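Deviations from the work plan: none for this task. Representative record:
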Amino acid sequence: MIERTLIDAETLGARVQELGAEIARDYADRDLVLVCLLKGGIYFTADLSRAIDLPITVEFVRARSYAGTSSSGEVKLSWIDGLDIAGRDVLIVEDIVDTGLTLVEIWQALEARGAASLAICALLYKEKRLAHPFAVRYIGFAIEDVFVVGYGLDYDERFRNLPHIAVFQPDESARSPSRLGRSPLNPP
Ligand code: IMP
Ligand code: MG
């Protein structure tokens, strides 16, 4: 169940604009390609890319590790083979860094494809959970160790389309959508 709003849409939007301006300054005169990690990074990448005033390109890779509210411990990457990143400056765009395992896998895969430089931009960062030490260059918000949904983040594929970030408390007895009760798009 949706418990409470953690970050509202206006705050998200303002922070994304700040990040975009910072990235545009840092990558001026470079050949920047954003690599969006699907599905969670879709809304963040859409907004962030439009906040970067440079002629960048955007690519998409699918990474899967979660089942319900916990990581399966194994990351599956798809669509990495066709990426044109050799000799280019790559910025990986992630919805959330939790244990960091996804980033370890994607970093290695992109490095192997000859990126000139690699950096990470994560909207959310669960500091306490980080098991793999990773330097995340751009962080939207550091958050507490709670399970969140919205703005791309899901619970078993649902709630990605919430315009804000909300804290979610799984209720295993209410898994079927018809029993989720109140519409997540209209929380109390
Ligand atoms: P990591 O590999 O443990 O860092 O997990 C990263 C991935 O797990 C993210 O890209 C999300 O898809 C998912 N994830 C981690 N924490 C949350 C959460 O609080 N809500 C929804 N998805 C999450
Ligand atoms: Mg997910």
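The first strand starts at residue 2 and ends at 7.
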